[in-house]
Each structure stands twice: as structure tokens, then as C-alpha cells.
Amino acid sequence: MKLSREEVLHIAALAKLGMTEDDIHHFGGQLSNILENFEVLKGVDTEGIQPTAQANSVCNVMRDDVIAPSLSQEEVLANAPKRDGEFFRIRPVME
Amino acid sequence: MTHPEHLTIHEAHDLLKSKQISSVELTRSMLKRIESVDPKVKAFMTVTGDLALQQAAQADKKIAEGECGPLTGVPGVMKDVLCTKGVRTTCSSKMLEHFIPPYNATVIEKLYANGMVLLGKANMDEFAMGSSTENSAYFTTHNPWDLTRIPGGSSGGSAAAVAAGEGCFALGSDTGGSIRQPAGFCSITGLKPTYGRVSRYGLIAFASSLDQIGPMTKDVTDAAIVMNAISGRDERDSTSVDCPVPDFTRSLNKDIKGMRLGIPKEYFVEGMQPEVAAAMETAIAKLEELGASVERGVSLPSTPYALAVYYIIAPSEASANLARYDGVKYGFSFQGTDSMWEAMEKTRQFGFGPEVKRRIMLGTYALSAGYYDAYYLKAQKVRTLIRMEFDKAFEKYDALITPTSPTVPFKAGEKGDDPLAMYLSDVCTLPINIAGVPAISIPAGFASGLPIGMQIIAKPFAEETIFRIAHAYEQATGWQKMNPKV
User: Fold this and answer.
1) Does domain A5-43 have CATH number 3.30.1310?
2) How far A49 CA lies from chain B's nearest CA (Å)?
3) Domain ranges of chain A
4) Do A79 and B99 touch (CB under 8 A)?
5) DSSP state of B417
6) Which of A78, A68, A11, A89 is nearest to B368 (CA)?
7) Architecture per CATH, B4-258+471-481
8) Can you tell me the ipTM of this complex?
9) How are beta strands B75-79 and B117-122 bridged, if at all?
């Protein structure tokens, strides 16, 4: 399972991870090696076996919609790298 | 009171309650201890001295009013993956270098309500991804038993702090062994509770179907005390289970006569150090001597697939969880561009370290179109097989006994840049998270002065069984009383 340079770039783009040429080469090799080790799973018979998404049986947890105190706007914005008054400041989305 | 640094929670409590020491005195001596040994051990990301002394003074007031619970005035250390309101929480990542959470994790709130004093935040592998703390973006923690070796990981700072006497106890988090492996490597007690036993609200997420928070302590009694404080259903974590929380300390001081223990052969893997195998033999003989009936050669045949299952599922979930670091709401933000996408890519390029990137890439690949069925779905199905084998084993046995790690703690730098070699150090602990069952690591001896841990695994919500066996073994051997010379 050798990942091509294009595949590495494709995954990096999906993950929004910037990469240097060195990274592409380095991660490409390591990921190929790791994926090769995962090939063992192909030989396991899982016919008729349901997937496990999580280990306990809790599902569809509901609660009453009760109004309760939440973080203030100031607290929510306190860690923002850039803010503008009561907003997070972001770069233009439309280019 | 010559060595306050080695006080357990219950010993500190006895002294506080009988007013032989005040919480302020105890906290001061712990802070002094940190000052003298942490330059060598490097367990702490942040020391919260002023806050600790304030909280200690409050605890003393409560104690004076006759209110002294098991944790009142007892100083603890929290892994830096747990949100602490007003106290920097970095996950040992550059991404969160200046992040100050606006709220407390539920476990922090519960410990505060029980009167804990916060000494500081412990170093870890970045975003809890690693087995040695070498993936911390800041520095590597050293093993107090041998400073040239790693303390294990990812909760390596928590484990080293407890072993070196830089706190009475710590909390860690465990996704594939991150509490138990460092506990074993530092000769302390570390419990990964059942999935759903402890609320993860305020735990910075790594792999949500595997993550659990648990105690890292100087002995089994302390682990039970901490579990009493942090367990239970929490409306803010919908995966926490509404299951009665017993008084775990009632499982202590009971004999283990007639208990059925299984030794799964797949955990005695190729590449296991002979010293570890020998220590396990001695430990198992001790359990038999204490009256347990031990069956060797139990088989959990899917165990060899656990590593591949884990390293598909955990990175997949991580790639989704870590998508939130976009440089907009909090955390590191790359500023040198006007393009939104470039800013996001550069933020993640410079904010994350190599192991985190590797896992995001791996997970993104396993979830991407065309590969989902072959990797993620397949791993989830094999996960079911692993779970079913545990279920079946627990029809016959009260608990399973394995080594915590196939080796003693390794040298810093030894695994180099070989991710697979590092992943193998968690081979005995990963299957437990995959199955969601509880397991503890307790000290089981030494090989040339280096700690060896024993893992005790039980069925879901049977932490009481674990405590009963662990306490009986600990009382019969006394390994927990050994302290490193730092």
C-alpha cells in the first residue's frame, strides 16, 4: 500500500493541513508503512458482524429543554485570536 | 513529618483531620518539592502556586469548621488536557499555548467541590497522542526512577509527578493506555474506568469512543477515594452512564479466595522482555497464594488485531475532533495571509506537531471516499469481535491478568522517528479501550531498578472487582511503598 504524492496532497487538502515538500515525502513514507500493517484486518472474517461505534449501549439521550445560565459573550470571545466588537473576526470567505 | 512528599491521599487526610498539619503547610511543602525536583523531572506544564495556597487556606477554614472530607485540603495535579477555568490549558500543544478555558471540566468541578487543592497542570504527549511525553511540543518528562528514561505516556507528567512526590495524586486520561502505561512505568496505580463511568465534559477530545478520565495515585486506596469523587452520570456528557456509583473504598480489605482469574496468552507477546514475563509469573503465583483460582492459557484470539483496529479508529475520530482548530475561535492563528483557506492550512501546519499531523492524515485517509468501508467500517466490525471475546471471557472469569506493558520504561529517544515501534508499547492496553471495559495498572516489581506494572481487567462497571483484587495484591506485596530517589 504505497501512497502516491497526489494521494498525500489530497489527504492533506481534505484535512486542511499545510505541508512542506519534506513533509509530503516523510509522511507519505510513514503512512504507507502504517497502512501496510493494517492489511492484517483484511483477513479477518467479519461476515454478519455488526460494527461497534462505541462501547456502551447508551443511545439517543434526551433532556428537557430548560433555560440555564451559559457563558457570557465576553467569556466566549476571550480566547479569540481576532475579534471585532461582539464578533469573531475572520478573513473574507468569498474570494 | 520528614517526607510529606510521599504522603498518600488517605495519609494526608488523617494528618489534616487530626490537625497535625494544615493544608497550607502541606501545600507549601509540595510546592517546595516541585521547586527542588521538577527541574530534573519536568512533570509540570504550569504550576499554580498562588491559586493552590488560596485553595489550601479555604480548605483549612473548612477543616476548622469540622468539615474534612477525604480530599479536603489534599493537593493534586491535573493532566493538561483537562479544562481548568482561568488556568492555562495547553494539551502540551503550540496550538493551545495561550488557551485559558472559560469553564472547568466536570471532574475538576467535582474535585474542587471535594476540597482539592490544584498544584498545577501536567505535561503530556501533544493532544494525548503518544506513549512517552516525547510528543509534547514543549519538553519531555523524565522517569523519576531513571532520569534518562521516559515516564510513559501520554499522561507521563501526571505519573512522574505522583511518583516523584510532587503531589498527592493526579488525574490522567486514557484512550489506548495513556493512564495505565505511564502508571506501570512509574510504579504507581492508574485506573482506566469503564467507558461512561466518568464524565468527559471539559476533557479536550482525542478519540471520543475511547477516551476516559481516571485516577493516578500512590496506592489502590487512593484510586478508590478519587473514583468516589469523580464518577457518575453528567448531563453535559451524554455518553456518561446512569449507573449507581458504589462507595469504592468498600471493595478494599476483602480477601480474594475463590475468585476466578484468567491469564490471556495473547498478552504475553513476542518481544516481551523476559524480566517482565518473570515478574508476571511471580505476581500470578502471589494471587494464587492469596486464594484466587488462576487459569492460564485463556485465549482472546482477536487480540493481535487490536493494534490495527485502534490505529484506524482513534486517528479517524481524532481527525474529526481536531477539525475544530481553525485559528478562528481560540488557539494559535496564522496571520501572514488574507486568504481564509491558506490561514487555516498554515494555522494547522504550524500549530500541530508531527505525531498529531500523522494521525490526522491517517484518520482522514481512513474516512475518505473509497476507503471508509475497507478501513473504518472494517475496524469497527473487528472491534465487535474483540468486545465479544471479552464478554465471553467474563462469563467464566471475574478478572483477567496481564502485564501493563511488554517492556520496562525505555530510554528517551530510543524509538526515534519510528511511529510503529512506539505504537507497540501500548499493545497490552489498547484492547481494553476498544472493548470499553475497566482496567487498572498496579506496581508488580522491578527489573534492575525499573518498574513493572500488572494490569487487572474486569467487565463493564466492575471496578469494585478490580479494587478488591488490586488491594489484596498490594497489601500482600508492598510494592506501592517503594519510592524513587530523585
Assistant:
1) no
2) 6
3) 5-43
4) yes
5) T
6) A11
7) Alpha-Beta Complex (3.90)
8) 0.95
9) parallel
